Fold Methyltransferase domain-containing protein.
Amino acid sequence: MKLKTYALFPAFFSSIIDNKFRNLFENMEKNVELMGVKPGMKVLEAGCGSGFVTEFLSKAVGKEGSVISIDIQEKMIKKAQRKRGYLQNAFFRVSSASDLSSVKNEEIDLAFLYYSFHEIEDKENAVSELFRVIKHNGMLSIKEPRFEVFEKDRESYKELIISKGFRFIESIKNCDFLGCYLKFVKN
């Protein structure tokens, strides 16, 4: 199944969305709660950009948990390390969701793709890799832009992810103004 791929978010724009005013549009604590992040979890954040969400994930998993934040753009990872390098339980890597060879089988409690699934070229392989690294009964949460992606691509995303072995849990359409969630579990 060939799904549309959208352009990568340019690294030079990251400062526009990585600022304190973003919480006016998106309550990040609420987003982390909707994802199902709990203390002690090991979370994979695919498409971390400059690490804005990483900071909230790191706080939510606490000292007993950890966050592996990946992005295919080296410039984004460098920005994330520069801005969020103080987070002791967050680890930044240049990597693609389509190649998670640095992550062990069933190592992850929750994988989270925040406005990034639509940018992945090889979605089929990415979902297979996510299935491989997520633990039994682990979660996959995807948040996509409401208007330009979610309403058009939601059903094809669900179909692909279910075909790779995940069970659909819910679609949250009204979590905030900018985006909507799809949530799955690995059985």
Summary: The two ends are 23 Å apart (CA to CA).
